[in-house]
Amino acid sequence: ASFSYTFTPADCSGDFPTGDCDGFFLRQAQSGDDEDFLISVPTDTEAPKVQWWTDSAGAGPDVTIGYYCYNKNKPLPYTRTTCAAKTVSPGTTASLTYMFKAADCTNGTLPTGDCDAFLARGSQSGRDEDWRALAPSDGGPGISWYNTGFTNDIDVAVVYYCFG
Fold it and tell me: What is the pTM of this model?
Protein backbone atom coordinates (compact mmCIF):
# COMPACT_ATOMS: atom_id res chain seq x y z
CA ALA A 1 0.00 0.00 0.00
CA SER A 2 1.11 3.57 -0.64
CA PHE A 3 1.15 6.25 2.07
CA SER A 4 2.23 9.87 2.30
CA TYR A 5 2.60 12.59 4.87
CA THR A 6 2.70 16.30 4.09
CA PHE A 7 4.73 18.21 6.64
CA THR A 8 3.32 21.24 8.44
CA PRO A 9 5.35 24.30 9.43
CA ALA A 10 5.27 22.99 13.03
CA ASP A 11 7.05 19.81 11.82
CA CYS A 12 9.80 22.00 10.35
CA SER A 13 10.86 24.17 13.30
CA GLY A 14 8.08 26.64 12.55
CA ASP A 15 8.65 27.27 8.85
CA PHE A 16 9.28 25.42 5.61
CA PRO A 17 12.75 25.38 4.06
CA THR A 18 13.14 27.92 1.24
CA GLY A 19 15.32 28.30 -1.83
CA ASP A 20 16.59 25.49 -4.01
CA CYS A 21 16.64 22.52 -1.66
CA ASP A 22 17.89 18.97 -1.56
CA GLY A 23 16.10 16.64 0.83
CA PHE A 24 17.80 13.74 2.56
CA PHE A 25 16.86 11.14 5.14
CA LEU A 26 18.29 11.35 8.62
CA ARG A 27 15.99 8.53 9.75
CA GLN A 28 13.48 6.25 8.04
CA ALA A 29 11.91 3.36 9.91
CA GLN A 30 8.57 1.76 10.66
CA SER A 31 7.38 -1.46 12.25
CA GLY A 32 6.79 -3.84 9.38
CA ASP A 33 8.61 -4.02 6.08
CA ASP A 34 10.21 -0.71 5.12
CA GLU A 35 9.97 -0.07 1.43
CA ASP A 36 10.68 2.71 -1.00
CA PHE A 37 10.69 5.95 0.97
CA LEU A 38 10.67 9.04 -1.25
CA ILE A 39 11.18 12.72 -0.36
CA SER A 40 9.41 15.58 -2.10
CA VAL A 41 11.28 18.84 -1.61
CA PRO A 42 9.33 22.06 -1.02
CA THR A 43 8.46 24.27 -3.97
CA ASP A 44 6.61 27.56 -4.29
CA THR A 45 3.34 25.65 -4.62
CA GLU A 46 3.91 22.44 -2.63
CA ALA A 47 4.83 21.72 0.98
CA PRO A 48 7.56 19.15 1.72
CA LYS A 49 6.27 15.58 1.78
CA VAL A 50 7.40 12.01 2.34
CA GLN A 51 5.91 8.97 0.62
CA TRP A 52 6.46 5.28 1.35
CA TRP A 53 5.18 1.87 0.41
CA THR A 54 4.79 -1.24 2.50
CA ASP A 55 3.13 -4.63 2.08
CA SER A 56 2.55 -5.18 5.80
CA ALA A 57 0.62 -3.33 8.45
CA GLY A 58 2.59 -1.68 11.19
CA ALA A 59 2.88 1.48 13.18
CA GLY A 60 3.34 4.69 11.27
CA PRO A 61 6.82 5.61 10.15
CA ASP A 62 9.46 7.40 12.17
CA VAL A 63 10.91 9.76 9.58
CA THR A 64 13.32 12.67 9.96
CA ILE A 65 14.28 14.59 6.85
CA GLY A 66 16.94 17.25 6.50
CA TYR A 67 16.91 19.90 3.80
CA TYR A 68 20.04 21.56 2.45
CA CYS A 69 18.94 24.79 0.78
CA TYR A 70 21.04 27.15 -1.30
CA ASN A 71 20.80 30.10 -3.64
CA LYS A 72 21.77 29.16 -7.20
CA ASN A 73 22.87 32.73 -7.87
CA LYS A 74 25.59 32.81 -5.19
CA PRO A 75 28.92 30.96 -5.12
CA LEU A 76 28.84 27.85 -2.97
CA PRO A 77 31.51 26.91 -0.40
CA TYR A 78 31.34 23.31 -1.57
CA THR A 79 30.97 21.19 -4.67
CA ARG A 80 27.57 19.52 -5.02
CA THR A 81 27.44 16.26 -6.95
CA THR A 82 24.47 13.96 -7.41
CA CYS A 83 25.10 10.34 -8.36
CA ALA A 84 22.11 8.29 -9.46
CA ALA A 85 21.71 4.86 -11.03
CA LYS A 86 19.11 2.40 -12.15
CA THR A 87 20.40 -1.13 -12.24
CA VAL A 88 19.27 -4.74 -11.85
CA SER A 89 19.57 -6.55 -8.54
CA PRO A 90 21.57 -9.78 -8.45
CA GLY A 91 18.46 -11.30 -6.84
CA THR A 92 20.11 -12.60 -3.70
CA THR A 93 19.27 -12.18 -0.03
CA ALA A 94 22.32 -10.36 1.18
CA SER A 95 23.93 -7.06 2.01
CA LEU A 96 24.56 -5.38 -1.33
CA THR A 97 26.64 -2.43 -2.50
CA TYR A 98 26.54 -0.42 -5.68
CA MET A 99 29.62 1.67 -6.42
CA PHE A 100 28.87 4.69 -8.59
CA LYS A 101 30.68 5.18 -11.88
CA ALA A 102 31.66 8.62 -13.19
CA ALA A 103 28.87 8.37 -15.78
CA ASP A 104 26.32 8.07 -12.90
CA CYS A 105 27.31 11.49 -11.52
CA THR A 106 26.60 15.07 -12.51
CA ASN A 107 29.26 16.45 -14.83
CA GLY A 108 30.61 12.90 -15.26
CA THR A 109 32.83 13.28 -12.19
CA LEU A 110 32.98 11.14 -9.05
CA PRO A 111 32.99 13.05 -5.75
CA THR A 112 36.36 12.96 -3.96
CA GLY A 113 37.92 14.28 -0.78
CA ASP A 114 36.10 15.51 2.33
CA CYS A 115 32.45 14.88 1.45
CA ASP A 116 29.15 14.47 3.24
CA ALA A 117 26.86 11.90 1.60
CA PHE A 118 23.07 12.04 1.84
CA LEU A 119 20.58 9.44 0.64
CA ALA A 120 18.16 11.10 -1.77
CA ARG A 121 16.46 7.95 -3.11
CA GLY A 122 16.66 4.21 -2.56
CA SER A 123 14.05 1.83 -3.93
CA GLN A 124 13.72 -1.55 -5.52
CA SER A 125 10.77 -3.72 -6.51
CA GLY A 126 10.93 -5.93 -3.44
CA ARG A 127 11.65 -5.61 0.22
CA ASP A 128 14.54 -3.28 0.87
CA GLU A 129 16.00 -2.10 4.12
CA ASP A 130 18.81 -0.17 5.71
CA TRP A 131 19.93 2.04 2.83
CA ARG A 132 23.26 3.76 3.51
CA ALA A 133 24.93 6.45 1.41
CA LEU A 134 28.69 5.90 1.18
CA ALA A 135 31.00 8.92 1.15
CA PRO A 136 34.52 8.59 -0.30
CA SER A 137 35.83 8.21 3.28
CA ASP A 138 33.41 5.25 3.75
CA GLY A 139 34.75 3.40 0.72
CA GLY A 140 32.40 5.17 -1.71
CA PRO A 141 31.09 6.91 -3.57
CA GLY A 142 28.33 4.36 -3.52
CA ILE A 143 25.32 3.01 -1.69
CA SER A 144 24.69 -0.13 0.37
CA TRP A 145 21.51 -1.84 1.54
CA TYR A 146 20.08 -5.13 2.71
CA ASN A 147 18.06 -7.07 0.17
CA THR A 148 15.58 -9.53 1.70
CA GLY A 149 14.59 -11.29 -1.50
CA PHE A 150 14.58 -11.27 -5.28
CA THR A 151 13.93 -7.89 -6.84
CA ASN A 152 14.13 -6.29 -10.20
CA ASP A 153 15.06 -2.69 -10.85
CA ILE A 154 17.01 -0.69 -8.30
CA ASP A 155 16.69 3.11 -8.35
CA VAL A 156 19.17 5.01 -6.15
CA ALA A 157 20.51 8.53 -5.74
CA VAL A 158 23.00 10.08 -3.35
CA VAL A 159 23.84 13.79 -3.04
CA TYR A 160 27.43 14.65 -2.10
CA TYR A 161 28.62 17.96 -0.65
CA CYS A 162 32.43 18.09 -0.91
CA PHE A 163 34.51 20.74 0.83
CA GLY A 164 37.99 21.99 0.12
Answer: 0.70
